[in-house]
Amino acid sequence: MQNTDFERYYQQVRGKQKRDTVLWSLTLLALYIASGNISEFSLQTLWSSLPHFFDYLAETVPVLHWNVLFADGHTEGSLAYWGYRLHIQLPLIWETLNLALAATILSVIAAVVLAFLAADNTQSPPIVRYAIRTAVAFLRTMPELAWAVMFVMAFGIGVTPGFLALALHTIGSLTKLFYEAIESASDKPGRGLSACGAGTLQRMRFALWPQVKPVFLSYSFMRLEVNFRQSTILGLVGAGGIGQELMTNIKLDRYDQVSMTMLLIIIVVSLLDALSGRLRHWVVEGKAV
Asked: What's the whole-model pTM score?
């Protein structure tokens, strides 16, 4: 009898879950179709224009010939001829990496401090929490490109507008992620320290920080990769770095140099991804891999 009742209850729950799944799926599909109609999205246009995208990619593929592959830079079809602007692009890649790293380090330091002040469970004054949350919401609402355009108009073309644009947006994004991680931390260690007479700063240092440090590191390394990619885009509006080289090559139809620039960006992003994983493992677990 009990098995029969349980089976009936199980089938009722399963049926309700299936109905909810179908209902929500149909709702999302209807919203997706409606938004596509409002934005004038057309699958026919996408399908008919898609070959042009691959045509552009084909234009960027360099022309290399095996018989002269390792010839000097004056021989068309050689690797040296393809990379004849490497002496310009490599310093720009290094500049872009430094820009992303400097903006990320400054932003992480600022975001850690602001996050502890903005979290609900750190006993900071309510007016301080509200002010910080409002400020960082504004910072992350403005896209990096919008910040960069304003700073280029104020400071001129160079790395300063890119640095400020990345730093402000990163502070806004990381502060929100950080204070949400702090609020999700367990309060048991903090209560234990309070019972021993620990103050607010001691509870933050010995109860909250050990719990949130791995999360902070993960977000910080992820943001470093994002900032490097974003810094290449900011160069398109004159904010310094390899993005300016990419934009120049696109405007001048130097398709082979577009592919070389993109290849350098992909290599650096891949190296950053591998390096950040190793650093995170080393810092969190205390050993390298």
From this structure: 0.78
3-state secondary structure of 70: coil
d(CA 161, CA 239): 5
Task: Determine the Cα–Cα distance for residues 239 and 35; give it in Å rounded to an integer.
Answer: 34
One-letter amino acid for residue 134 of the chain: T
Q: What's 158's DSSP letter?
A: S
Task: Render pLDDT for 39-94 as a digit per residue (tens, 0 to 9).
Answer: 777 778 878 887 887 887 788 888 888 887 778 777 777 888 788 888 888 998 99
Options 1.10.3720.10, 3.70.10.10, 3.90.1170.50, 2.60.40.3780; CATH for 91-285 is: 1.10.3720.10
User: CA angle at residue 23 from 18 to 29, to 5 degrees?
Assistant: 125
CB 64 within 8 A of CB 54: no
CA atoms of 192 and 137, how far apart (whole Å): 33
d(CA 276, CA 229): 15
CA distances from 90 to 5, 50, 194, 250 (A): 71, 32, 54, 18
- Structure tokens belonging to residue 37: 């109609």
Cβ-Cβ contacts under 8 Å for 72 (sequence gap 6 or more): 78, 80
